Amino acid sequence: MDLNKIAEKIKAGLRAKEVIIVVGSMEVFYEGRASSTLGAGERLLIIKEDGSVLVHRPRGYEPVNWQPPDSKIEVGVDEGRLVVEARRVRPREVLKAVFTDVKAVLSFKLHDEAEFAMYATEEDMKRAILMEPTLIEDGFKPMESERRAGDSGFIDIFGVDREGNLVVVEIKRRNATSEDIRQLLRYVESVERELGRRPRAIIAAPGVQRSAMRELASHRVEFRCVTPRRCAEILKRGQGLERFL
Amino acid sequence: MDLNKIAEKIKAGLRAKEVIIVVGSMEVFYEGRASSTLGAGERLLIIKEDGSVLVHRPRGYEPVNWQPPDSKIEVGVDEGRLVVEARRVRPREVLKAVFTDVKAVLSFKLHDEAEFAMYATEEDMKRAILMEPTLIEDGFKPMESERRAGDSGFIDIFGVDREGNLVVVEIKRRNATSEDIRQLLRYVESVERELGRRPRAIIAAPGVQRSAMRELASHRVEFRCVTPRRCAEILKRGQGLERFL
DNA sequence: CCTTCCGTTAGGCTC
DNA sequence: GAGCCTAGCGGAAGG
C-alpha cells in the first residue's frame, strides 16, 4: 500500500472518529514542556477518537511519547515519508512521528460505554471501617464520618473508644507521610478547641513512611495497619450478606 | 476467523516475543493491589514482547487496565469466548480480558533499539546553570554540585556570590512548593551548622506556587525564574560550541 | 479558572 | 531489596 493511500486511510479514520493504529518504522520528536527525540525504530502509533496519541515501543508499560486528548492531528506525506503531527495549544506542545516504513494500518470505530468500577478507594476503606470498627480496635464506636474540623478540613471518622475517649481517625490507602500526621494533628487541635477534650489520634493506613515515624511517636499518634485489600474483602463479604437481607 | 485460530495466533506471537494487538468486544477484570471490573465494550488489548499488557478504551490517554512487564500470559477459549489472562506474583495481580467478539488480531516482531533522549530534566537544568551561572545572578560562582548537607540530603548547587557570601541553590523544573522551600531551609541550616556562616538561599524554578509565597518571603528565600526550556537552549548552544573544541 | 491531592501511580536511584 | 523522589506526570475534586 503506498504512502498516499495510507495517509488517506488515516484521514478517513480521523474524520470518522475512529481509533487508528499504525505499525511501522518511525522517528519521533516531541517539543513542549520538555523536548525529546527518538531515533528510527519499529513501534506502534495509536490515535484515539478524542485526539489522544500514544507511541509505544515493543517493551515497557508506558508510552515513550504521547499527546493528551484534544490534540489537533495532521497527516501528510513529505519526501516519501508519512508524517503524523499532533499539536495542542495549552500548553503548547507538538508530537511528530515520521514513518519511513509502514507495516500495517488499522482503523476501527469502537463502541464502549461500559462503566469502570474500581474497588477499595479511600472512600471504600472508610465504609469498611464503619462496617467493621474492630479494624481500629475492640470497642471502637464510630459516631460521625466526614465531620467538619473547624477550617482544617474533614475528619474521616470521629468516634469514641471503649473508655469514652474521643477518637479521630485519619485513613490513607497508601503509607502515611509526615504531612498526613500533621493533618491529623490539626484535626486533634480543632476538636480540642471545640469540645475542650483532647481526642486520641489514630492513623489507619497500610504503613507509615520511615521519615514520618518520629513525628508519629513524638505526637503520640497511634497507627493501625489497614489495607485497601482487606477493606475490599470486608465490603465484598458485606455485599454478600446484603443479598440475604 | 474462529476463536481457536485466534488463540493460536496469539500464542504464536507470545512464543516469538512479538507485539500483539487484539481489537474486539471484551469485559475486563483486575484483582491485585486494588480490584476493578469493566463491562463489555470494544477496546484494544496490547501485549508487548516483555509481557506488559495494556487495555485501551477509545478515549483517553491512559490505559483503563494494565499489567507491567514480566507478567505471565495465558490464552484460552472458554465457552465460546477468548480469554487472555496476565498474572504477576509480586505483587500478586491478575488481569483478565474476556472477549465475546474479535474484530482483528495483529502480531509483529518489532525491532527498536533506538536511544530515547529527553532534554531539560532537572539534571539538565543544573548543567545549564553551571555552564551559565548568570542565570542565578551576575558574579555568582558555583563551587560544588550535589554537596552533601549533613543528613538533610544534597544541595543542587553550592557557591559564592560576588561579595563572598555563601549561596545555596535549589533547582526545580516545576513551580516550587512549600515543601521545596522547607527542604532548601534545611540545607541552609545544615550549612550554617557546618561552616558557621548562614548562606543565602535561592530557589531556581519556573515559578513558585501561590501557597508557598508566604514561606518564601518570611524566610528570605530568593527566587530566580529558570525554565527547563531556556536551559535546554543553553545546553544546545553549549553542545554546538563543544563541536569546535 | 486555579490549586491541591491521588494513583493498581511507574520508574529510577540510593542505601 | 526497600525506601524515597520525580514525572512532558494525568486526572479528579474543591475553591
Descriptors:
homodimer; 245 residues; alpha+beta; Protein Yojf, Chain: A; Trna Endonuclease, Chain: A, domain 1; 2 domains; 7-stranded antiparallel beta sheet; 5-stranded mixed beta sheet; 5 helices; disordered C terminus; DNA-binding
Q: How does the major sheet of chain A shape up?
A: 7 strands, antiparallel
How many β-strands of chain A, per DSSP?
A: 13
- Placed side by side, the strands forming the largest sheet of chain A appear as 4-3-2-1-7-6-5
Spans of at least 5 consecutive residues with low confidence of chain A: 240-245
Share in helix of chain A:
25-40%
Assembly state: homodimer
Q: Number of DSSP helices of chain A?
A: 5
User: Which structural class is indicated by helix and strand composition of chain A?
Assistant: alpha+beta
Mean pLDDT of chain A: 88
Q: How many discrete domains of chain A? A: 2
Q: In the CATH scheme, what's the topology name of the largest domain in chain A?
A: Trna Endonuclease, Chain: A, domain 1
CATH secondary-structure class of the largest domain in chain A: Alpha Beta
Largest interface: A-B, 52 and 52 residues
- CATH architectural arrangement of the largest domain in chain A: 3-Layer(aba) Sandwich
Amino-to-carboxy terminus distance of chain A: 63 Å
The fraction of residues assigned to DSSP E strands of chain A is: 35-45%
Order of helices and strands of chain A: HEEEEEEEEHEEEHEHEH
The backbone outline of chain A, from C-alpha atoms, is elongated
Rg from alpha-carbon coordinates of chain A? 27 Å
